[in-house]
């Protein structure tokens, strides 16, 4: 707590030099301004990108292969391809609010047990990270990711999120030279079949682990 004693107050009253501002109060004021500025800027970006394409992201800029993009609306992508992507990445995408609590808890449990490091990110979380943030872990980035996930879930909606999912690789909204343009039904069915096989294998592994 900062306060001025009677002598300082008397000097100030007589026109003397003003006392130095309290460092803690100055820091707190600056912190509040930074937080409010960040909230306002993030809201503005999310609202703008609700209607216009994302021009560039940090993930794109840090890609050693450079930037090659070709935006596509979700309506131009084969439905089977979209379903296959959802089944492979986030089976609860259409029902959760941006966070899959069960997947997060399973990931935390697996990591604590010393197994292969895994995450519990949903398509919404991946989109928030790829569009607004950067790659890599860390609790600070995860906190920002949660904030942007909350925003896009409530401002963009599921359709827009799916359009901009995974900016760095294949997405329903963009294609790059790594994948090329993928829109035909045969590719979608192939991905769907592969996803079913992967999901079945994963379920068998979990059942086997639970019995052991």
Question: What can you see in these coordinates?
Answer:
By secondary structure, this protein is mainly alpha-helical. The chain has a domain at 65-211: Orthogonal Bundle (Penicillin binding protein transpeptidase fold). The chain has helices at 6-13, 23-49, 58-61, 79-89, 101-112, 123-132, 139-155, 158-163, 185-211, and strands spanning 70-71, 174-175. The protein has a two-stranded antiparallel ribbon. Helix 4 (79-89) packs parallel to helix 9 and helix 6 crosses helix 7. The chain is globular, with a radius of gyration of 24 Å. Residues 168-186 have low confidence and may be disordered.
Structural key phrases:
single chain; Penicillin binding protein transpeptidase fold; 2 strands
Question: Outline of this structure?
Answer:
This protein is mainly alpha-helical and 212 residues long.
Task: Summarize the topology.
Elements: H1 6-13, H2 23-49, H3 58-61, E1 70-71, H4 79-89, H5 101-112, H6 123-132, H7 139-155, H8 158-163, E2 174-175, H9 185-211
Antiparallel strand pairs: 1-2
Helix pairs in contact: 2-7, 4-9, 6-7
What's the N-to-C terminus distance?
59 Å
- The CATH topology of the domain at 65-211 turns out to be Penicillin binding protein transpeptidase fold
> Helix count?
9
Order of H and E elements: HHHEHHHHHEH
> Which structural class best describes the helix and strand composition?
mainly alpha
Shape: globular
Largest sheet descriptor? 2 strands, antiparallel
Rg, Cα atoms, Å:
24 Å
CATH H-level superfamily title of the domain at 65-211: Biosynthetic peptidoglycan transglycosylase-like
Judging by the overall fold, what is the CATH architecture of the domain at 65-211?
A: Orthogonal Bundle
Strand content: under 5%
Q: Could you give the count of β-strands? A: 2
CATH class descriptor name of the domain at 65-211: Mainly Alpha
- Could you name the ranges where pLDDT drops below 50 across 5 or more consecutive residues? 168-186
Spatially, the strands of the biggest sheet line up as 1-2
Instruction: Round the mean pLDDT to the nearest integer and report it.
Output: 74
- Secondary structure: helix percent: 55-70%
């Amino acid at each position: 707590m900062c306060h001025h004693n009677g002598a300082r107050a008397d000097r100030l009253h007589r026109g003397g030099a003003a006392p130095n501002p309290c460092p803690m109060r100055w820091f707190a004021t600056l912190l509040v301004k930074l937080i409010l500025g960040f909230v306002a800027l993030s809201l503005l970006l999310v609202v703008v990108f609700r209607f216009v394409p994302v021009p560039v992201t940090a993930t794109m800029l840090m890609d050693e292969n450079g930037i090659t993009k070709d935006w596509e609306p979700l309506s131009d992508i084969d439905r089977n391809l979209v379903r296959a992507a959802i089944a492979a990445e986030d089976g609860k995408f259409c029902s959760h609010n941006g966070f899959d609590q069960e997947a997060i808890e399973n990931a935390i449990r697996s990591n604590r047990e010393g197994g292969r490091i895994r995450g519990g990110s949903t398509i919404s979380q991946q989109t928030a990270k790829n569009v607004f943030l950067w790659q890599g872990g860390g609790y600070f980035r995860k906190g920002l990711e949660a904030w942007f996930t909350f925003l896009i879930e409530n401002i963009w909606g599921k359709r827009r999120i799916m359009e901009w999912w995974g900016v760095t690789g294949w997405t329903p909204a963009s294609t790059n030279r790594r994948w090329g343009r993928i829109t035909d039904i045969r590719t979608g069915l192939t991905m769907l079949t592969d996803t079913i096989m992967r999901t079945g294998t994963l379920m068998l592994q979990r059942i086997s682990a639970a019995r052991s």
